[in-house]
Amino acid sequence: MFLPLRDENPSGKFAVVNVCLLLANIAAFLYELSLTPHAARALEMTYGVIPARIPAWLAGHGTLEAALLPFLTSMFLHGGWAHILGNLLFLWIFGDNVEAAFGHLGYLLFYFVCGIGSGLVHAAFNLHSHLPAVGASGAISGVLGAYIVLEPRNRILSLFFIFVVRVPAAIVLGVWFAMQFLMGLSTIGTAAMRALRSGSASRATSASCSAAGSAGATTSPAPVAATSPKPPTSLATNGVPKASAVNSTPDWSAWR
Predict the structure, then answer these.
(1) Which residue intervals of the chain are DSSP H helices?
(2) 16-33 and 81-102 helices, crossing angle to 10°
(3) pLDDT per residue as tens digits for the range 16-59
(4) How far apart, in whole angstroms, are the C-alpha atoms of residue 146 and residue 96?
(5) Domain encompassing residue 103
(6) Per the domain annotation, does 184 fall within a domain?
(7) Do β-strands 2-7 and 155-160 pair in parallel, antiparallel, or remain unpaired?
């Protein structure tokens, strides 16, 4: 187990913007936890970055807000406890030094530029993806890159199993970027497996429908006994049709 604890060269100033960013991410995550799974999925689909919305908007479908606003809002959403704890730990340790060097307003602008820029790069390489991307990893990666430029020789007190050791900042941040790369590969693999399962299910359904159609075409229909017509049971006595069980059930397929 490797866990960074703090740096040996704190800024000595109260990083008000960094603290506000931490609190905003925590508040957004607590709100996510309060939602039902269906509502949480709807939140991700609304405020997460979905690259396919950009070409759709350029083609005249959808709105500018739905296509571009998630590049900002997605930075405050996270996919689970490990996701948010890892992000906020590194932001807490390294963000204060960068804010002290850039100033409060400069640090805030730098954070948003890095976060929005990483979202745009993700969209450019996955332009037709319909999977929502959430998290502050892009913005925090920019903060860590600035830290390594500002404090290249600094050391980080880190917990290595049961020992507290002093590790160069470059190694700690290298571990961070390696973790982000592996998480990205895992996400790509999960999406590919889902697409493969979906394609296999679609092909199986098509094959079964084709087989059923062929069997129906070669089989003679059974004779039907003539019966006297009966009035439909779904009609009321005054001639107004009653709602059937099928039609009275809302169609949720549009939410998937």
Answers:
(1) 16-33, 37-47, 53-58, 64-68, 70-73, 81-102, 104-125, 137-150, 169-218
(2) 160
(3) 999 999 999 999 999 999 999 999 999 999 999 999 999 999 99
(4) 11
(5) 11-154
(6) no
(7) antiparallel
219 in any annotated domain = no
Provide the domain count of the chain: 1
Selection from 43, 213, 220, 203 nearest residue 132 by Cα: 43
Phi/psi of residue 91, nearest 5 degrees: -65, -40
Cα angle at 203 between 53 and 190, to 5 degrees? 50
Q: 10 Å Cβ neighbour count for 83?
A: 17
Provide the 10 A C-beta neighbour count for residue 142.
19
d(C-alpha 65, C-alpha 68), whole Å: 5
Confidence of residue 3 (pLDDT cuts 50, 70, 90): confident
Reported pTM: 0.72
Name, in order, each residue with C-beta under 8 angstroms of 153's C-beta and a sequence gap of 6 or more. 168, 169
Residue 222: inside a domain: no
